[in-house]
Amino acid sequence: MDAAKLNQLKHFVEQCKSNPSILSDPSLSFFRDYLESLGAELPPSAYESGDYKSKSHVVDESDDDMQDTEDDAQPQGTAAEEDEPEIVESDIELDESGVVEPDHDPPQKMGDSSVEVTEEDRDASQEAKAQAMEAISEGNLEEAIEHLTKAILLNSTSAIMYATRASVYIKMKKPNAAIRDANAALEINPDSAKGYKSRGMAHAMLGRWEEAAKDLHVASKLDYDEEISAALKKVEPNAHKIEDHRRKYERLSKEREDRKIERGRQRRRAEAQAAYEKAKKQEQSSSSRRPGGMPGGFPGGMPGAFPGGMPGGMPGGMPGGFPGGMPGGMPGGMPGGMPGGMPGGMPGGMPGGMPGGMPGGMPGGMPGGMDYSKILNDPELMAAFQDPEVMTALQDVMKNPANLAKHQANPKVAPIIAKMMGKFAGSK
Fold first, then answer.
1. Together in a domain, 138 and 233
2. Predicted local confidence at residue 83, as pLDDT
3. Bias category Acidic residues: which stretches (predicted)?
């Protein structure tokens, strides 16, 4: 290749590394395609506007993977679409005529309930009250307040004195002062109709329609008069509107919360279903990629057990059993079998024995194709193989079959040897 052209190519590649946007030139689309065919992943700047999304994001993904991505993204999109705006309460149209600005005067003087009231004090208190009533009739409300304050200080146990002064504060449009006196009256006498009436009217002046309606209803039950009735006709419509409004938005809020809970329940159910479907698809995909045979087991199965035995024997012997196999085996079998048999075992022994023995394991297999599962699946034999005494006796017999006679009297060993011989005999 021409050295000059090679240097130009190197220079071009260096420029592409430092500024990948060079590759966005439409005339270089063939070069981009070539790089991608080699497996290269190019940055977004290497593509024309809009082309990156349509082309550079085309990657090798299986249909299952693409579906998994869509499934994962779906719950988030659904949750976003299901978001609801906050409930905005509408204004209530109320009749607020008669509502005044709250009074913020210092609290008026109150009597001392701990002071003992004498008869003279009561008489003087009544005289001050009479003067107050006269001042009220003349429209001198400030003077009336002064006389009633004097009456309260003389007899602080009189609920009617506080309630009367409260009614004067109502006339003076001082609802907070009226409420303080009405509360004092109701503390002394919880059944003071005038106390409830004054407090209810004071609440109405402050626009507290529900509190006003409540107090005026109590006052009406205790001592009905036309003034209470007139106040209720104005207060009740506003109180009902507020109550209906509150119930409406409590209902809307509860419905909104119920929908939110239901959406969350449905979303969790959908996510659980999606996770289940994803796991199921992955399992099916994994199963379809495995070679023939028994997945997770012995490919091709184990027809007919181990034809021809197990080549190479069972290295290391049976687990917990014959370490190193059965060295020396039983050459030539047991001549004449086991004379007299084994007590409770196999009378007559096994004529011919086990030719070839089991040297170094079990090469050549057992005659007729021994099914080892008969031994391995026998709980009694497997338990006996864990007993050192039994294993010592078995190894002694394996080394020299003539030693069988000395173990026939052992009640622990003899039945195990007999059982093994029976299984060997049954395999022929």
1. yes
2. 63
3. 61-73, 80-98
